[in-house]
Structure formats: structure tokens, C-alpha cells
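Q: Predict the bound structure with magnesium ion.
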Amino acid sequence: MNLAEYQQFTASTAIYPKDNALVYLSLGLTSEAGEVAGKIKKIIRDNVRNDEAIVSEIGDVFWYLCQLCTAMNVEAADVIEQNMNKLIDRQERNVIKGNGDNR
Ligand SMILES: [Mg+2]
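A: Predicted complex:
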């Protein structure tokens, strides 16, 4: 399965009010990212690492990312390519470290 196919699949399981899609999806994304962090936090607290649970939560993050892309009318693969190009440009200009969105 490629990313475009997965993005299309997420639509079949997207059950939420579409009139507030961006807000709903942003909250869902940050919630799932928090679940990833929570599983990793438990490595420190309990000294127990559950890779299966962490990967499952990363999958939930991907679902929300793909649905956010759909809500923004963009292909997830295009977003990734744009991000890669931005980072390659920063590497080539030796500004990969530092601050600012528009380096
Ligand atoms: Mg989850």
C-alpha cells in the first residue's frame, strides 16, 4: 500500500462532524501525538517499553495527518515531498540548524 492509497482508505473510516473538520482533526492529531508521548513516558516511569503499542499510536497519528491533508485538499505524498525539498534546501544552504520557519 502506498501513501495515496492509505490516504484514500482513511476517508472510509472518517466519522466526525465535517463542518468543523480542521478543528476536530487538529485536536485528534495532538491527542494521538500525546498518546505516543504517554507510551514513551511509561518507559521512564515503569522501565517497560511496549513497541507494539507505540507503533500503534504512531499509526493513529498517521490517520489524523492523512485526514488533515484531505481536509486541506492536498495529497499527503505532496506534503511529504514539499517537506523533503524544504529540508534538502536547508541542508544545501547549511541552515538545517537554527530557528525560524523561513530559513
Ligand atoms: Mg490512539
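A: The radius of gyration is 16 Å.
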